[in-house]
Design brief:
149 residues
C-alpha cells in the first residue's frame, strides 16, 4: 500500500486561505506544498514509527509504506499543522523585519504592522501547540526500548 502526498496536502489547504496557490501552474503548486510536507515530516521523523522520508517517491508523489489507517489520520493531522507553520514562516520573518524598522507608535489598530504582529503571535501559539502534539504522539507511539538509559 502507498500513501499519496495529497492525503497530507488536502487537509493543509483546508487550514489556510492562500488563493495564490490556485493561480500557480500545477507543477509550481506541487513544488511549494511538497516542500512544506517534507519539512513537516522532518519535524516528526524521530518520533514517528513510520519512515516517510526514505520511502518518498517525488515522481509518483506518494510514500511507499504501509500505515495503519488509525495511525495515518493522526499523523496527517499533525503533519498538516506543521505545514501550516511552514507556510506562515515567511510572514513571521517579514513581521520581525518590520518590527525592527518601526516603533510602537507605528502600530495602529488597522495598520499592516499590527496585522503582521498578530500573525507573529498566532504563529507562536500554533508552534507551541504543534510541538505539544508531536510530544503527545511520541508518548503514545514511542518505543521505550530506543532510549539509551
Amino acid at each position: 500500500m502507498s500513501v499519496s502526498y495529497d492525503r497530507f496536502i488536502k487537509p493543509f489547504l483546508m487550514k489556510i486561505s492562500e488563493y495564490r496557490f490556485l493561480s500557480l501552474p500545477e507543477s509550481d503548486r506541487y513544488d511549494t506544498v511538497d516542500q512544506y510536507l517534507k519539512s513537516a515530516l522532518n519535524d516528526i521523523k524521530r518520533v514517528c514509527k513510520y519512515d516517510f522520508i526514505s520511502t518518498a517517491s517525488d515522481k509518483r508523489r506518494e510514500f511507499n509504506i504501509d500505515v495503519n489507517t488509525s495511525d495515518l489520520s493522526e499523523i496527517i493531522d499533525i503533519v498538516s499543522d506543521g505545514m501550516v507553520l511552514k507556510w506562515m514562516q515567511p510572514y513571521v520573518n517579514q513581521q520581525e523585519l518590520l518590527e525592527a524598522a518601526l516603533n510602537t507608535k507605528d502600530y495602529t489598530k488597522h495598520s499592516e504592522a499590527e496585522l503582521l504582529y498578530r500573525i507573529g503571535n498566532d504563529y507562536t501559539v500554533k508552534k507551541k501547540d504543534y510541538i505539544q502534539r508531536i510530544r503527545e504522539y511520541s508518548y503514545d507511539c514511542g518505543d521505550l526500548g530506543d532510549l539509551h538509559i
